[in-house]
Amino acid sequence: MDKEKNTFIVRCGEVALKGMNKPYFERVLLERIRKNLKKYEGIEAQRREGLIFVKAPAAYGKETVARDISRVFGVASVSHAVETESDLDAIYSTAAEYMNELIRERQIRTFKVEAKRADKTFPVESPDIARRVGGEVLKRCGVLQVDVHHPDCILYVNVRHGQTYIYADKMKGFGGLPLGTNGKGMILLSGGIDSPVAAWMMAKRGMLIEAVHFHSYPYTSERAREKVYDLVRILASYCGRIRVHSVNLLDIQQAIGENCPEDEMTILSRRFMMMIAERIAEANRCDMLITGENIGQVASQTAQGLVVTDNAVSMPVMRPLIALDKVDIMDIARDIGTYETSIRPFEDCCTVFLPKHPVTKPKLSRILESESALDKEALIEKALKTQETVTISPE
Ligand code: ATP
Ligand code: MG
After folding, report:
1. Which ligand neighbours the alpha carbon of 213 most closely?
2. Residue 1: its pLDDT value, please?
3. Strand partners of residue 115
4. pLDDT confidence of 273, banded at 50, 70, 90?
5. Which residues contact 128 (CB under 8 A, 6 or more apart)?
6. Which of 18, 207, 246, 252 could cross-link with 22 by S-S, CB 3.0 to 4.6 Å?
7. Pick from 242, 243, 264: which is nearest to 253 by CA?
8. What would the pLDDT profile of 285-316 be if each residue is shown by its tens digit?
9. Does the C-beta of 292 come closer than 6 Å to ligand 1?
């Protein structure tokens, strides 16, 4: 057993179903694991027989490394494993040593063994390996009993060519597809609960993410923008570095306020956000826009509201949250770690100019007419000049 390094077995999720393209997806996944875990010096990742093996210096806690591996999109599950040669005596003593460690760490009292013989030249068949290892562990770890129905712990023995891996836990990953296998999307990122979840969901399907945020400085504070950057930092722990563009929307909001009906403020500014985001997306070679919109949630997200917003751009707009319930979105936000930051109370540019009674069933023709009172192109150009871009790395 290599005491200097911890070994992790990584199982691929959907990547494994990719048929002819499987080697490509596996290669990208391997690269992603290496990239996302770069902060662990001396880490190695390799692909062998449909699994990915990661080795990290033991100085880094195994829980922390396993958690970071589980966050890489495309990973179905990960286990910390101990490794020995594929020889029965070596397997017995490694299994017993590993089990003794678990007994010390977690007061395990009952167990069962599941064995798998990937190396068909190994002289003992799987059920027999399980029986023999179970017997030896019982003999060598005094306090244990076998319980095949509800064991405290399942000891997995995976016999491969030359090497055998022994492990007890599978930490579930998020699944999905490796980042970079599905183009690039520009998320319209507010400081709210929904848009970070929307970005995360698209990234989970392999899409690289870039973000645009609109503010109304000085009506919105610098701290409101910091909150958005904090959200991006959390997203970056899944996606790697993310570029964020901030744009000041204040002149546009004031122009709408002066020239258009008050109840159309939200829907009109939403159209401008889409148009500006589309320009920035094109300039940065993004394939589509992403929003956290969700049908029926607020006045501007009724069916009619969405039709009017959608009409502002020709680039496809992904709305991964469209049919989810708010409670389910909140659950995902908690799971991925953005919730606590999203609920920090800072003003958003939309709330600064919130009309008293926003239109809930806007008619496209009327909205277009209101919009024609504005010099759209000049306003967009001017807003684009306020653009500031930063690159945010994971912590
Ligand atoms: P969120 O929780 O994402 O803020 P929301 O439920 O508050 O969403 P709205 O405020 O109506 O909904 O915004 C709908 C979508 O428009 C957001 O999910 C986001 O994609 C985009 N959006 C809203 N405000 C901004 C902003 N200030 N900057 C960038 N995008 C925004
Ligand atoms: Mg919002």
Report:
1. 1
2. 52
3. 157
4. very high
5. none
6. 18
7. 264
8. 999 999 999 998 777 788 999 999 999 999 99
9. yes
What whole-number distance in Å separates Cα of residue 97 and Cα of residue 2?
Answer: 13
pLDDT digits (tens, 9 = 90+) for 127-143: 999 999 999 999 998 87
DSSP state of 142: T
Q: Residue 337 has which token pair? A: 């770690």
Residues 6 and 20 sit within 8 Å (Cβ to Cβ): no
In the three-class reduction of DSSP (H, G, I as helix; E, B as strand; rest coil), residue 272 is classed as helix
**Cα of 274 to ligand 1 centre, how many Å?**
11
DSSP secondary-structure letter at 386?
T
Nearest ligand, CA 196: 1
pLDDT at res. 152 = 92
Interval between CA 211 and ligand 1 midpoint (Å): 12
Q: Which atom of ligand 1 is nearest to the CA of 300?
A: 11
Closest CA to 7 of 318, 48, 366: 48
Average pLDDT across the chain, whole number: 92
Among 318, 336, 321, residue whose Cα is nearest residue 236: 336
Distance 292 CA to ligand 2 centre (A): 8
Instruction: Write phi, then psi, for 280 (nearest 5 degrees).
Output: -65, -35
* Cβ neighbours of residue 145 closer than 8 Å, sequence gap 6 or more: 109, 110, 111, 138
If one residue of 186, 187, 188 were mutated to test the ligand 1 pocket, choosing by the most ligand atoms within 8 A of its CB, it would be: 188
Q: Which pLDDT score is estimated for 145? A: 87
Taking 90 as the threshold, does the pLDDT of residue 360 lie above it?
Answer: no
Ligand 2 centre to CA of 394 (Å) is 24
- In testing the pocket of ligand 1, which one of 186, 187, 188, 190 has its CB within 8 Å of the most ligand atoms? 190
Q: How far apart are CA 166 and CA 100, in angstroms?
A: 13
Grade residue 196 by pLDDT with cuts at 50, 70 and 90. Answer: very high
Nearest CA to ligand 1 atom 21: 188
